[in-house]
Amino acid sequence: MQVIDADIVIVGAGGAGLRAAIAVAEADPSLHIALLSKVYPMRSHTCAAEGGAAGVVKANDSLEYHFNDTVSGGDWLTDQDAVDLFVNEITKELIQMEHWGCPWSREGSGHVAVRPFGGMKIMRTWYAADKTGFHMLHTLFQTSLKYPSIKRFDEYYTSDLIVDDGACHGCTAIEMRTGEMKLFRGKSVIVCTGGAGRIFPFTTNGAIKTGDGMAMAYRAGVPLKDMEFVQYHPTGLPGSGILLTEGCRGEGGYLLNKDNYRYLQDYDLGPATPTPVLKSMELGPRDRLSQAFWQESKKGNTVQGKWGDIVWLDMRHLGEKLINERLPLVRDLSISYVAADPVTDLVPVRPVVHYMMGGIHTDINAATPIAGLYSAGECACVSINGANRLGSNSLGELLVFGARAGRFAVEHAKTVKAPRDALVTAQAADAEGRIKALFKRSGGKQRVSQLKREMNLSLEEGCGIYRDEKSLRDTVAVIADVRARYRDVTLEDKSSVYNTDLYQTLELGAMIECAETVVHSALLRTESRGAHQRLDHVERDDVNFLKHSMAYYNPNGDPRIDYHEVVITKSQPAARVYGAAAGGQAA
Amino acid sequence: MSKRTIQLEVLRYRPEQDKEPFFQTYTVPCEEEWVVLDALNYVKDEIDRTLSFRWSCHMFVCGSCGYKIDGEPKLGCKAFLRDYGDNIRVEPLDNFPIERDLVVVIDDFVEKLQSVKPYIIAKEEKALAAGEYIQTPAQLKAFKQYSMCINCLLCYSACPQYGLTNQEFIGPAALALAHRYNMDSRDVGRSAREHVLAAHEGVWECSFVGACSVVCPKDVDPAGAIQQAKFTSAVDYLTSMVGIGGK
Ligand SMILES: Cc1cc2nc3c(=O)[nH]c(=O)nc-3n(C[C@H](O)[C@H](O)[C@H](O)COP(=O)(O)OP(=O)(O)OC[C@H]3O[C@@H](n4cnc5c(N)ncnc54)[C@H](O)[C@@H]3O)c2cc1C
Ligand code: SF4
Ligand code: FES
């Protein structure tokens, strides 16, 4: 097996991975960086982010406000030391992006413009029209080309981390063009592989978001934290699951039920003012809006469409000029996919799985419990998102913690002696052996697409916006069954060059591992908090569950779920208030 | 739900076993609102697991799914079945070697992208504490369109010059990107990029057929960028002559 040596190995070249790579290159240009990605960097799903990135910049705002919005938005499951650090560092990061050329939208004066976003009390979301993530990703990718020490390995599928004696020494990855497995050895490894939304059937997440890195870290012994917290975004296009950004509502769009009534006023989010007020109505937090949809649907107030229940997003009153200027992609997507022009028509929407609050357990330095292993971006859980992420905090998160991961990985690399060669090589050979065995397996009757569908539907049904013990137990059983049958999947494509049958099969394995942590953590959390709503335990229970769930891998059965203290510094748990009581400013 | 059945003719090529590319036809039951990518995914999931193609976002922003559809370079996720007949032909993009099935080798493009130094080259580094650069909406508008490129390479597939010059011509998207940075009020890197743009494989190679701008799914208008760049390149050249002459 070919061995590639680097000082720092970074898995994933989305927003977080690229930011980490640049941070390493700037901290010490003499270090060799290997940056691996299963797609070309600009294909990473950061490109899909539309709305923006929050950072305090205007005179009427304060770090304390951003802190409070984030902590209460996360239903106090956030670690407050991490949030503190995040709100302190994010604006600097956004300015850094500006210096690197990110085309932020501007005010007439030439200063960056900000827009309102759900759950934020003050307008503080920086944006680049409705293609913020796209511009951030391309800015980071293009900037990364400046640094000769960043060596990219595009279209390398990483299969396993190499961990020995409590330390991480690298990873194994398959070069997709040849099918050859290679061993990457590094002193520090940073995992930035993004989310796992694809475990659900109806999602805004691209095909690549299959939780590979979460599963790799999990198998290597790192706990996955707070996996039961899965964010539904309230406005996805029915059928495709394509996202219409929260910016639609930030700019003043309404959500209407079948009677053209702004139903959110019935869910403690009112009053229904004609122009948007922050933290109220359509600018409430995502968990509450998605839950209100579910309640409306139970009451028979949603519209029965061809793709199931929907409500209407009404942007007609915003006018063509504003829509073209600030929401051009939204207009394009709505016309193309549901034949509704937001300028003249109501657009059908429904909640759609969007973001994993949980992920690889890290501390505020992006370090995992395994020495030399770091993680940042959506695959990590640091945690600034708690039980519910506020929109426009994760683009910021990947910058702040991506950069920190890079810097701390550099510090760590300085302390490392060479790994024990023989053990590393043996582990790599094991990883290769598993792939070879998969190629040799024959006669199995299980199809990847069928198993994926069963897992998808069961999660949506049993572990969706609302859950209860019975639905969760059913899903636990389905996932266990899928996991057992997965061992019998046979590759139909036995070739080496760009074998997507192989990669989809490996991705399904990762998804099953993520899914089991989601459903087991959800089953044991007998309370309702943020995005985790139990019909059989409707109250938040701070006595027993103001804790992070920690799911540990068990090769022979269900994950072991343990708990970890939440860091509380200055904000004691209280009721989450939205609507009139929240005192949000006019947007 | 109304169903429709199409014949999807897909170019297959697996270097380990196929001497040359051939077409394979799949019968696909489709939903009315599907795009060609959905039909390909149906084939992959239900009929033939050996078919390979790139895709990810399904919302025309990641740039992965460029294929030639009925002879034209298109994004698979933006090619609605309703705009096609019942026989649809899908091939890899032109002007790139086929790696496998619909997957093409894009190393050449990636090198070209890098060669134009697509990053801000600032006069002097500004401290973060000094805040953002002031850039008016008008200054933003001067380059914004050219920053919209998703690197889907439809324009390279359509560009006659890229094919004719055996991939020597630096090509539409890379030139548009160079122009994007040249036009950015924060950037002073034009002279650093000039040797690439003004080289014979640079802007002058373009014969202004404009096919790139026609196929571009993001209205980047690379042809327009190249024309503008030619103009500034010519001015630069003249100014440099005058400069030398004046010494
Ligand atoms: C439609 C949409 C809109 C959004 N809008 C916003 C918004 O407005 N504001 C906001 O703050 N957040 C938004 N988000 C969330 C935010 O965009 C993501 O959380 C964030 O971009 C994730 O970045 P990342 O770098 O962690 O991962 P990604 O960008 O997903 O990158 C993951 C990287 O890991 C690589 N990778 C994965 N597995 C492997 C493997 N096995 N081997 C090798 N490489 C691998 C991939 O190739 C890729 O390069 C949105 C999300 C979506 C889906
Ligand atoms: S210029 Fe247009 S066609 Fe060419 S790569 Fe960019 S987006 Fe695609
Ligand atoms: S799948 Fe991303 S552009 Fe088509």
What's the CATH class of one domain in chain A, please?
Alpha Beta
Tell me how many strands of chain B there are. Answer: 7
Order of the strands making up the biggest sheet of chain A: 7-3-2-11-19
Please describe the biggest sheet of chain A, giving its number of strands, its sense, and whether it closes into a barrel: 5 strands, parallel
- Count, helices of chain B: 9
CATH fold-level name of the largest domain in chain B: Fumarate Reductase Iron-sulfur Protein, Chain B, domain 2
Major sheet summary line of chain B: 5 strands, mixed
The order of strands across the largest sheet of chain B is 2-1-5-3-4
CATH architecture descriptor text of one domain in chain A: Alpha-Beta Complex
Strand content of chain B: 15-25%
The biggest chain-chain interface is:
A-B, 62 and 65 residues
Hetero groups in this structure are: flavin-adenine dinucleotide, iron/sulfur cluster, FE2/S2 (inorganic) cluster
How confident overall, as mean pLDDT of chain A? Answer: 96
CATH topology of one domain in chain A: Flavocytochrome C3, Chain A, domain 1
Q: Give the oligomeric state.
A: heterodimer
Decide which structural class fits the backbone of chain B: alpha+beta
Mean pLDDT of chain B: 92
Tell me what the structure shows.
The complex is a heterodimer of chains A (587) and B (247). Chain A has 587 residues and is an alpha/beta fold. Chain A is built from 15 helices and 24 strands. Among the domains of chain A are: 117 residues, Flavocytochrome C3, Chain A, domain 1 (Alpha-Beta Complex), CATH 3.90.700; 101 residues, Up-down Bundle (Methane Monooxygenase Hydroxylase, Chain G, domain 1). In chain A, the strands form 6 sheets. Chain A has a 5-stranded parallel beta sheet, with helices on both faces. In chain A, strands 20-18-12-23-24 form a 5-stranded mixed beta sheet. The longest helix of chain A has 25 residues. The radius of gyration of chain A is 23 Å and the shape is globular. Chain B has 9 helices and 7 strands; from the N terminus they run E-E-H-E-E-E-E-E-H-H-H-H-H-H-H-H. In chain B, strands 2-1-5-3-4 form a 5-stranded mixed beta sheet. In chain B, strands 6-7 form a two-stranded antiparallel sheet. In chain B, helix 2 packs parallel to helix 6 and helix 6 crosses helix 9. The longest helix of chain B has 25 residues. Chain B is elongated, with a radius of gyration of 21 Å. The termini of chain B are far apart. The interface between A and B is large, with 62 and 65 residues.
